[in-house]
Amino acid sequence: MVVKEAAILFESGSDKDCDAVITVVAPLTTRIERVENRDNISKQEVLNRIKNQWTDEMRLEKSDYSIENNDLTKAFQQVDEILKKIVNH
Which of 18, 33, 35, 44 is the most exposed place for a label (fewest CB within 10 A)? Predict the structure, then answer.
């Protein structure tokens, strides 16, 4: 199994190379805060990046699975459930 992380998977057309797509979503405020802290950039810079990406709704519509990344423990549980489904497919 190979996992490919890509913020612009659909925009780049790379989804066509994947057997399954998992989209990870989080509230906008959480996403902004995480990117600000990770990349040491301003809120406006984060928003500029986000506006060039597909919306969560657009990505979820084309995804096979989704993970809500609000709570790390719950996110790991969702990953385990998805992996079991993929392996048993």
Answer: 44
Q: How far is CA 51 from CA 15, 43, 56, in A?
A: 20, 12, 11
- How far the first Cα of the chain sits from its last, in Å, is 13
Whole-number Å distance between alpha carbons of 18 and 31: 25
- Crossing angle for the helix pair 28-39 and 43-51, to the nearest 10 degrees: 120
Q: Spell out where the chain has E strands.
A: 22-25, 65-68
Measured CA to CA, the distance from residue 34 to residue 72 in angstroms comes to 13
- The pLDDT confidence band at residue 17, using thresholds 50, 70 and 90, is very high
Name the 3-class secondary structure at 22.
Answer: strand
Q: What is the pLDDT of residues 22-61, one digit of tens each?
A: 999 999 999 999 999 999 999 999 999 999 999 999 999 9
Dist. CA 70–CA 29, nearest whole Å:
11
